[in-house]
Amino acid sequence: MTDTKVTPLDAAAIEVLKTITTATLTTILLKKGLRNVWIRGGMPLRPGQERVVGPAFTFRFVPAREDLATPASWGSPISTRAAIEAMPEGAFAVIDAMGVADAGVFGDILCARMVNRGAVGLVTDGVVRDVDGVLGTNLPVWSRGAAAPPSVAGLTFVGWEETIGCGGVCVIPGDTIVADKDGAVVIPAAYLGEILEEAPEQERLEGWIVNEVENGEKLPGLYPMNEATRARYDAWRKDA
């Protein structure tokens, strides 16, 4: 990281990132020394889910404690309901469920309200419930799957908009989330400018390599490129 100025995730940046695969993002971030950016367990609930981009809005659960994780807690000032009402339009919910797979963090009613609030997506290392209803809200969801029990069966909600761990990845409010068919990737806020500058060229380069492979080129010297291949690519790019 060479620039301490944070680039905002504005509408133009979102449109750029919608053209960049999470696979490309992990490669670029790896080259910058960031190996741990892919949220484990956060896979698309709906087959064929299109890519979604937004700023992280975090939710944090801890293990259930019987005097705290009760149905009555849903009406508490510290609740998932209150957190949803605090979400700004365009936010991407990131839910730390500690990988718990037998208690659904959100169901159809909460997801419907998130859609109404303008949320663009939800990713969790846990599961959701009321899966048919959740899918019916059209909220893009990435999770470990679904389970019938409510969140209080295994989790206690404790806060929002704080640093969390989700799927083994540190997520800070305002980080950028990009999620597609390969899962969800976290772009730290301080790296966003570099990613926006470098990622389109990486996609262009890899597209050219795929085309060369389809035309019968051998991989040695092509991927990764040697000097001769780089010269061919540069000439193609100049003429393109």
Q: What's the overall geometry?
A: elongated
Write down the CATH class of the largest domain. Alpha Beta
Low-confidence stretches: none
What's the helical proportion of residues? 25-40%
Q: What is the secondary structure topology, with strand pairs?
A:
Layout: H1 11-17, H2 22-31, E1 43-44, E2 52-63, H3 80-86, E3 92-96, H4 108-117, E4 121-124, H5 131-137, E5 141-143, E6 155-160, E7 164-166, E8 169-171, E9 176-180, E10 183-187, H6 192-214, H7 227-239
Helix pairs in contact: 2-6, 3-4, 4-5
What does this structure look like?
With 240 residues, the chain is α/β, with parallel strands linked by helices. The chain is 32% helix and 20% strand. It has 2 domains: 35-187, Ribonuclease E inhibitor RraA/RraA-like (Glucose Oxidase, domain 1, 3-Layer(bba) Sandwich); 194-239, no CATH class. It is built from 7 helices and 10 strands. The strands form 2 sheets. Strands 1, 2, 3, 4, 5, 6, 9 and 10 form an 8-stranded mixed beta sheet that branches. The protein has a two-stranded antiparallel ribbon with strand order 7-8. Strand 2 (52-63), helix 3 and strand 3 form a beta-alpha-beta unit. The longest helix is centred in the last third of the chain and has 23 residues, at 192-214.
Features:
alpha/beta; 240 residues; 7 helices; 32% helix; 2 domains; elongated; eight-stranded mixed sheet; Glucose Oxidase, domain 1
